[in-house]
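Re: [ENG-882] Designed sequences occasionally contain unexpected residues at chain ends

Forwarding the minimal case from QA. Structure tokens:
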């Protein structure tokens, strides 16, 4: 009997585990779900006879080795910094590993050893990174096969909230995935190439230098650059391309308001603040601005950032409760941890909320003596707070890849990402049957 061990029973795991349990039922497989909380793992397994919940602590070596030894394939939805540790266990035990996270240097260093042992360590097989790679490569390969030469590729993806969800929310945003990752996003220099020139955006400028994006049928959005778009020039085999930009999508107005947190220093995670146990939302923000007691916090922000008192940035801060005298509710924390905790009070998905994934690609290419343009977009909508669009688009690619691997339909080995046809063709085909589909349009 083939066994898949799925690690992590958190927010993004529900759809993956449901898919795996269905495949296990059809194929005679077994699914182990491991988490620090056995109760959380049991909740994901439910009453399925094909599943079993186990306790898994990645920092407990003996326990980890014992659990991983039971599996043929391991899927890790643990925080990304644990993946290299899991990978080393998998390497020692001869087990395949799949993750949705970016390939780290530590992970990449295992490539030759994994390949020598005939193991697949597949990474970046979620939404972004994941579906973005696969959907892009499908179009890129098609353009090349048709004799075209890519001159520009831009790609933006965002996990947002559905238009009908929380209509009074001026951010048009809630935490649909790991809230800490949202607060910490982009805290290094973004690198890309634009019209043949290399561009660099330090974190302090990231939310000021945005790209307007129009998604046909869904309206106007704004995008900010991801950390390193340049490394995907080689990955996508686009040597010589003039523009290469990958980024994150948000609703209009988000970036200008979030930039206030960045400029104040609220996203800093390098030191602990004092007096957190008596800190209020208002005093947290006030600790980052001028200390003149004669001027209100609101006036200080308006003056410092050239805002209007009734403008959209102040509206977003007020709605989020940043000017309230409510206690934060923590005993200690860094600025980033405190900001995350405050925002979670209003930004956590609630019953009745639906999330919303928007992905958009633009390809410019030369063919003959003419320039052509293809735009492609993907929209996914969550069903509820458990079966979210984020859980669907992160989990399903991993589940499908695990199924294909156990069926002997994937031959790649070593540390790889799904930019080859043996991954993207079957995974995108099955995603389409599950309601996740990229729509392409040839532009005039």
């Amino acid at each position: 009997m083939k066994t898949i061990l799925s690690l992590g029973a958190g927010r993004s795991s529900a759809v993956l585990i449901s898919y795996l349990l269905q495949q296990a039922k059809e194929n005679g497989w077994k699914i182990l779900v491991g988490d620090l909380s056995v109760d959380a793992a049991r909740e994901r397994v439910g009453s399925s006879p094909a599943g079993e919940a186990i306790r898994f602590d990645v920092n407990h070596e003996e326990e980890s080795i014992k659990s991983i030894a039971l599996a043929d394939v391991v899927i890790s939805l643990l925080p990304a910094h644990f993946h290299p540790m899991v990978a080393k266990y998998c390497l020692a035990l001869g087990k395949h590993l799949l993750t949705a996270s970016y390939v780290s240097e530590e992970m990449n260093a295992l490539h030759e050893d994994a390949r020598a042992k005939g193991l697949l360590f597949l990474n970046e097989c979620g939404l972004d990174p994941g579906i973005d790679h696969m959907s892009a490569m499908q179009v890129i390969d098609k353009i090349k096969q048709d004799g075209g030469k890519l001159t520009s590729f831009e790609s933006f993806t965002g996990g947002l909230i559905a238009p009908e969800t929380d209509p009074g929310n001026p951010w048009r945003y809630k935490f649909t995935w790991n809230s800490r990752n949202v607060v910490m996003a982009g805290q290094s220099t973004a690198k890309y190439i634009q019209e043949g020139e290399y561009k660099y955006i330090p974190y302090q400028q990231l939310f000021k230098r945005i790209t307007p994006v129009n998604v046909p049928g869904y309206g106007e959005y704004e995008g900010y650059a991801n950390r390193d778009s340049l490394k995907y020039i080689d990955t996508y085999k686009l040597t010589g391309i003039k523009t290469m930009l990958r980024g994150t999508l948000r609703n209009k107005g988000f970036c200008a308001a979030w930039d206030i947190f960045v400029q104040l220093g609220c996203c800093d995670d390098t030191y602990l603040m004092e007096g957190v146990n008596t800190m209020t939302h208002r005093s947290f923000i006030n600790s980052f601005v001028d200390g003149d007691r004669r001027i209100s916090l609101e006036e200080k922000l308006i003056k410092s950032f050239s805002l209007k008192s009734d403008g959209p940035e102040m509206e977003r801060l007020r709605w989020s409760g940043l000017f309230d005298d409510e206690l934060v509710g923590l005993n200690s924390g860094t600025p980033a941890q405190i900001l995350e905790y405050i925002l979670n009070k209003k930004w956590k998905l609630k019953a009745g909320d639906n999330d919303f994934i928007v992905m958009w690609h633009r390809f410019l290419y030369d063919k003959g003596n003419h320039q052509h343009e293809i735009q492609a977009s993907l929209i996914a909508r969550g069903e509820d707070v458990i079966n979210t669009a984020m859980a669907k688009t992160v989990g399903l690619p991993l589940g499908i890849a695990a199924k294909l691997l156990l069926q002997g339909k994937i031959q790649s080995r070593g540390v790889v990402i799904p930019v080859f046809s043996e991954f993207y063709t079957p995974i995108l085909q099955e995603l389409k049957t599950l309601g996740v589909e990229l729509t392409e349009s040839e532009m005039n």
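QA comment: On inspection the terminal residues look reasonable. The radius of gyration is 23 Å. Proposing we downgrade this to a documentation issue.
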